[in-house]
Amino acid sequence: MTEQTPDILALILAGGLGRRMEGQRKPLLRLGGRPLIERVAAQARAQCGAVALNLHDAAPETAAPFADLGLPVATDAAPGRLGPLAGVLGGLDFAARNLPDVEFVLSLPCDCPFLPDDLAARLLAAARRAPSSLACAASGGRTHPAIALWPLALRDELRRALLVEGQRAVGKFQNAHGAVAVEWPATPRDPFFNINTPDDLARSQDMLGNQ
């Protein structure tokens, strides 16, 4: 049974360029008849008290393809396509401005269609035990830095790392701040399988059919 955690904002990261997807907009690719981002949004809504979409900017041509989702947009914290850390910081700023009851932001890539039902609850339990209050997902002995729970208390440190120190690597920032990894089994299907290429999309279709 999915457990909802009201003090978390789920932030779907959809600002990437998808260079390996032959020019197609990855969030809008269809799996089992549904756009990838719609699958992620459904899991996010089931588990978190609020959901927002991270895009590089809020220009009409950028946001229009996602209008049917009905999600607020949290833009990158700085221009220039600085990567997912800019998206996460944008989500933290959005929560701080608009959601006084939210303590954490759960970052979710738009291309992970098989997220586990207990993702938010388990990451929150780990974060509350960790000195840093920062937790990320892991499976098969490998961490997934983009799937992580970020405390709003880290906003200033993340802003300094991104905009002053030029930090771009999500995992490097997390390691430096004592993030804890929470492990999920990778069999019979890795819940954090992500779709980067047309071959990945075909494989995910097979995985969906075999569930």
Describe this structure in words.
The chain is an alpha/beta fold and about 210 residues long. The protein has one domain (about 5-210): Spore Coat Polysaccharide Biosynthesis Protein SpsA, Chain A, CATH 3.90.550.10. About 35% of the residues lie in helices and about 25% in strands. It contains seven helices and nine strands; from the N terminus they run βββαβαβαβαββααβα. The strands form two sheets. The protein has a seven-stranded mixed sheet. It has a two-stranded antiparallel ribbon with strand order 2-3. α2 (about 60-65) links the parallel β4 and β5 (about 75). α3 runs antiparallel to α5. The model has no long low-confidence stretch (mean pLDDT about 90).
Widest beta sheet: strand line-up: 5-4-1-6-8-7-9
CA distance, first residue to last residue: 17 Å
**CATH H level, superfamily name:** Spore Coat Polysaccharide Biosynthesis Protein SpsA, Chain A
Major pleated sheet: 7 strands, mixed
Mean pLDDT: 91
Just give the CATH class: Alpha Beta
Number of strands: 9
Structure class = alpha/beta
Low-pLDDT segments, ≥5 res = none
Total number of domains: 1
Q: Into which percentage range does the β-strand content fall?
A: 15-25%
Along the chain, the helix and strand elements come as EEEHEHEHEHEEHHEH
Helix content: 25-40%
CATH architecture: Alpha-Beta Complex
Q: What is the helix tally?
A: 7
Shape by Cα distribution: globular
- Cα Rg: 16 Å
CATH topology: Spore Coat Polysaccharide Biosynthesis Protein SpsA, Chain A
Write a compact overview of the structure shown:
The chain has helices spanning 36-47, 60-63, 84-98, 119-129, 155-163, 170-176, 198-209, and strands at residues 5-13, 30-31, 34-35, 48-55, 73-75, 104-109, 135-139, 142-151, 180-184. By secondary structure, it is α/β, with parallel strands linked by helices.
